[in-house]
Amino acid sequence: MTSDQARRRVEQLTREVERHNRLYYEEAAPEISDRDFDALLRELEELEAAFPQFAAADSPTRHVGGQPLAAFASVAHVVPMMSLANTYSMSELREFDARVRRTLGAQNYTYLLEPKIDGVAVSLRYESGRLTLGSTRGDGRTGDDITQNLKTLRTIPVRLRGKDLPDAVEIRGEVFMPRAGFAALNQERQEAGLDAFANPRNAAAGSLKQLDPRVVAERPLDAVFYGIGQLEGAQFKTHADLLSALKRWGLPTHERVWTCTDIDEALQHLEELHQLRHDFPFEIDGGVLKVNERGLYEELGATSKSPRWAVAYKYEPEQAETRLRTITVQVGRTGVLTPVAELEPVLLSGSTVSRATLHNEDEIARKDIRVGDLVVVEKAGEIIPAVVSVQTEKRTGAETRFVMPDTCPACGGPVARREGEVAVRCENSLCPAQLKNTIRYFAARGAMDIEGLGESLIDQLVDRGLVRTVADLYRLSLEEVAGLERMAEKSAGNLLDAIEKSKGHPLWRLLSGLGIRHIGAQSARTLAAEFEDLAALRAADQERLESIQDIGPKAAESIVAFFRAPHNQAVLESLRAAGVDPKGEVSSPPTGAALAGKSFVLTGTLPTLTREQAAERIRAAGGKVTSSVSKKTDFVVAGENAGSKFEKAEKLGVAILSEEALLKMLDG
Ligand code: IVH
After folding, report:
1. CB within 6 Å of ligand 1 — which residues?
2. What residues does 232 pair with on adjacent strands?
């Protein structure tokens, strides 16, 4: 397999494994069997072991959650978990009250108003005060057993407090992600190159579906409880009494609820709640009105889905109209270009909004969003406001269509949209917007091999502005490095030594570390065997590059484009000035070397040597190792399970050697 093929396969496998992880862990909707999943993961692990230069730090082979456990068990709720009838208007609330009054006739009743959280409904079962089961609503009758996940929430007690505990009780409530935690989690995910959750509700739901409770424990989840299912060995007169009991037992409940003597008062308090909604640390999407006297519930009854003693009033998502001034493009850490709407500032959901994400170019085209348009922005449970529609009838004709730039706004490098993706990415490996990734790649074992330069150090160096390009690594002082967190003077010295040592590495390591598209460690070696130094490589044109065995037109084009980009030229110049100007190994074949000038291709599993060991020995003896067979190939060394290369060698009449024959040649 050529390194190009390996890189492509690694990328493809990573995407596939991540997609199946998501389907399995977050959507609980796997498309393939565990066995097939394991096979994909294993292939990726093996490729990463053989081509460590392509093993990304955030590869799905490296984080927990990559190995699915068993799916959740199904559990039945003793009393089904019902939903609520929703209304969006005050007049419907009055109708609800009129129905209650009709049913109850002369009996007196009051209401309790609670905030409605947009989260995930859960049920906790306590027997003699001990938590025995935690589950999702599921279809209302059966849900998933997520006890272990729920136990990771600090606010959920495994034992209830107090003496008046019921023999058995199902306690109902909502798990949610507070705004601040949601924002932090999304930032982390984006930095790790993962998809951000669209809103706190999705984030909470996705978290609870994780099969590994350790992952759940790291998610900023909280819960609030507001009701019960089965209840044995206790009784409550009013809903307010029930809420007090939940609180006494140690469960989190709403800090504020409103008792209302009649519907008029309820509507007033609902308005008050609406005004207060942005003061809560979590998203509120409405209010829930419940008849307070529990003794009346039976009489009021229920539909197949919801009780007739409660109703949810939901706020319309908040919208505002404003002018789209311009569209800017941001480059993310993974090189994805995201168009952002720059808006005339407008007040929305309690804060001034002046930017909204436009996601990608397809989304802009689908909504026909143009610069200068009057647009409607919405913040519905979403922290990031979005442009939902355009007031096309208010167009003047002066509006202009947006075109995605064809170069990266951060570095001027080329951008491309890969097959099957909506995202446009910057292809320049040295792009400053992708700096942390770039440095990680540069320092990796298969490249400049700078020991000790790990992720947390890279984060600090970039965040503190000490490193703006890879060349800055060579200008770090002992004082600067020792000033970083968790850095003693001794380890700072070691790091600087490792950086210094990397200056002496051969050219192929630098070429591999620059992350030029289509150039992995193998092609980097090929190039280093052809060119004296970077300057010679830079001077080579497309034709010259293509004439090199194993360098195809795409790789050649990518090399030319890389050296042409002014940003890259500046970085290379700084590297040279800092003393990083390694030499190629062109002068090679040591005189009289056994394999001088001969080119080899290795295929299949050799009996005693790994392919890498065999390649090393061939190179040491002056030979060249390439990855594809052509007429120019002198020998193909074939082991067990040799495939198409073996066939090609036979077809072209290239000599085929066993490992044994190779060893004899090497011995001289
Ligand atoms: S009571 C049998 N109270 O909203 C009544 N539900 O849209 C069960 N919710 O299914 C629900 N806050 O998941 C109730 N204070 C609250 C709530 C609440 C949020 C959720 C719950 C419900 C959904 C209906």
Report:
1. 82-84, 86, 114, 116-117, 121, 174, 226-227, 288, 307, 310, 312
2. 168
